[in-house]
Amino acid sequence: MFGFFKKNKVLPTFAPLVTDMHCHLLPLVDDGSKSLEESLEVMETMKAVGFEQIRLTPHFCYPRFPNSEDDILERFKNFSFEVDNNRDNRNIPRLTSCTGEYQIDDGFQGHVDSGKLLTYHFADPKQGAEKGLLLVEFSLRQKRMGLDEAIFARTMEGYDVILAHPERYPYFDSRSSFLEQLKEQGVYFQVNILSLEGFYGPEAQKKAFDYIENDWVEFLGTDMHNLGYAMALKNASTNKKIIKLMESTEFLNSKLAVK
Fold first, then answer.
1. Tell me: the pLDDT tens digits for 131-174?
2. What is the dihedral of CA 28, 96, 92, 168, to 10 degrees?
3. Which is nearest to 225 in space by CA: 57, 82, 50?
4. Three-state DSSP class for 22?
5. Where are the extended beta strands (E) located within the chain?
6. How many other CB atoms sit within 10 Å of the CB of residue 27?
7. The CATH classification of domain 15-255, taken from the options 3.40.50.2300, 3.20.20.140, 3.20.20.150, 3.40.50.620
8. Can you tell me whether residue 162 is helix, strand or coil?
């Protein structure tokens, strides 16, 4: 009899994204999760704040994380099996695929030449380049020569390129002509949700919001690594400025194919 007093159900903050397309929860392959249990605990938090699906993006970074695509896919297969075995008693998102976060470094061309780059695709087969969306990152310390040429070459080869967390590179400012040039070339940008929370400091936070205001950002990602990141994500889900952003801005995460 009191049903008419009930408020409409409020969805978790990040539910509109559906998919987190940048995280490091494949255990023991990079600086992310160190165990199955840690990944499962983190995934529970991600589900609680609205993510229904997760795409794993282990680092391909030479020489720090000299991963191979074949090894990563085998590890992902085994990890997926373990996650499925825990699904009945853990409220966790679905693992949809394993792609990669490729640093443009001395080992990058070798991955390109192998023809095994791990990419995303849009759900609409008419959208995007034939070879899919390739997530790349730059060095967090100093700008490497030839970054624009490396990205342009990938687009000529049939890839769309997503630049991971441009707000975290200290050599770019809010109106970077280099980043603006990349946008003119059709490069997608992915900002870290934790940057919006201030997790990486005030400079990265300011640039993250500025890039979104510039209409430069198509994707948001957690860049999730461990339980400390999960706590920051939980805090971000209650941040009023982030909540307002999620209510007013449409990102492309939900447009990615489920594979």
1. 999 999 999 999 999 999 999 999 999 999 999 999 999 999 99
2. 60
3. 57
4. coil
5. 19-20, 53-56, 59-60, 94-98, 101-103, 133-137, 160-164, 188-192, 219-221
6. 19
7. 3.20.20.140
8. strand
